[in-house]
């Protein structure tokens, strides 16, 4: 009996020793007492992704975390200078980010949106195909592409200039506004449409939602991931096939010699400062695996708007409901620590 107890105790000690040896150590960055500062990005999908990453870094890896708010330019500059360490949902479009990568001060890791992004010019589905359940007849069944827009201008009348249609662009200062301005030139729409910028992202969503709920025609720019993509049914207008040559002219707001092209799908990544990459390689390994399907993201964003809750609420609910997915991103002991906090 004594031998059995000794053997059992020995096996237990070996198991504990093995478990201790396999446990994920606190990243050096965090062990030194330095907080991991996340950019407090304002749009909903970025809030959702940021809160998922933040929750796991804080509760799974034992790091202190902070959120740093500011404009895109300010927080991206702070990332490059290592005044903050993590910028979730990077689209890799700004000169600040491109230069930061070239200079070796930051890197973009992971692929957080499975399938990539989607951007373009849209109309409600009922405009093209009708909606029998709502008693709406199709009023533009031939509207397929941006080349068709001039002959349909009267459907999208601009209240302030009734002789023209209205294209609902992004708010002034957004990167997509600059891209759409160039496409507006390329598609030669100035004579038939007003290039209208709403005051805020909220105003953009409210205008689209109001028209959709009333069954009215509206022409607008939109993108995925975004809440309205999960709530409504839109038709994306065809644009010329992608070419690198034309995409460069679309990105260059200083030229009028622009040719149209569809916006390519982008891989959404996580921007991280180089010192943090060196100080927390286990966290970077987690970031490289973090990836959520677009339908889950769009649904979460819709919930944020309808329930008036923040990204932290939806991120926690996502972690509670999708254990089989996110536990693939981290070691088992990290997953156990996260689960204890859910």
From TrEMBL:
Cross-referenced Pfam families: OpuAC
Cellular component per GO, a single term: ATP-binding cassette (ABC) transporter complex
Signal peptide span: 1-23
InterPro entries with a match to the protein in the record: ABC_Gly_betaine_transp_sub-bd
The keyword Cell membrane is annotated on this UniProt entry: no
Single Gene Ontology MF annotation: transmembrane transporter activity
CDD domains per UniProt: PBP2_HisX_like
Keywords, in A-Z order: Signal
Domain ABC-type glycine betaine transport system substrate-binding: 34-321
Origin superkingdom: Bacteria
The name this protein goes by in its record: Histidine ABC transporter
């Amino acid at each position: 009996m004594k031998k059995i107890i000794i053997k059992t105790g020995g096996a237990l000690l070996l198991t504990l020793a093995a478990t201790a040896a396999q446990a994920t150590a606190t990243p050096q960055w965090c062990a030194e007492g330095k907080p991991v500062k996340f950019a407090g990005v304002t749009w909903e999908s970025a809030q959702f992704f940021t809160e998922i990453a933040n929750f796991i870094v804080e509760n799974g890896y034992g790091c202190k975390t902070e959120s740093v708010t500011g404009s895109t330019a300010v927080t991206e500059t702070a990332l490059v200078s290592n005044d903050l360490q993590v910028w979730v949902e990077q689209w890799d479009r700004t000169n600040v980010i491109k230069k930061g990568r070239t200079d070796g001060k930051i890197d973009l890791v992971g692929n957080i949106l499975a399938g990539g992004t989607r951007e373009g010019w849209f109309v409600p589905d009922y405009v093209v195909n009708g909606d029998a359940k709502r008693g709406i007849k199709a009023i533009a069944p031939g509207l397929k592409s941006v080349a068709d827009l001039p002959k349909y201008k009267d459907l999208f009348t601009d209240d302030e200039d009734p002789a023209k249609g209205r294209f609902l662009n992004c708010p002034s200062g957004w990167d997509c506004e600059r891209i759409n301005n160039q496409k507006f030139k390329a598609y030669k729409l100035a004579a038939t449409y007003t290039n209208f910028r709403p005051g805020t992202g909220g105003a953009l969503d409210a205008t689209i939602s109001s028209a959709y709920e009333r069954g009215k025609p509206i022409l607008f720019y939109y993108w995925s991931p975004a809440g309205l993509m999960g709530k409504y049914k839109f038709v994306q207008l065809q644009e010329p096939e992608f070419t690198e040559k034309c995409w460069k002219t679309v990105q260059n707001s200083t030229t009028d010699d622009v040719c149209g092209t569809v916006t390519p799908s982008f891989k959404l990544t996580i921007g991280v400062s180089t010192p943090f990459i060196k100080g927390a390689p286990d966290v970077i390994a987690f970031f490289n695996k973090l990836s959520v399907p677009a339908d889950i993201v769009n649904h979460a964003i819709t919930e944020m708007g309808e329930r008036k809750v923040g990204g932290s609420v939806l991120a926690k609910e996502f972690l509670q409901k999708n254990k089989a997915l996110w536990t693939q991103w981290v070691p088992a002991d990290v997953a156990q620590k996260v689960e204890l906090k859910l």
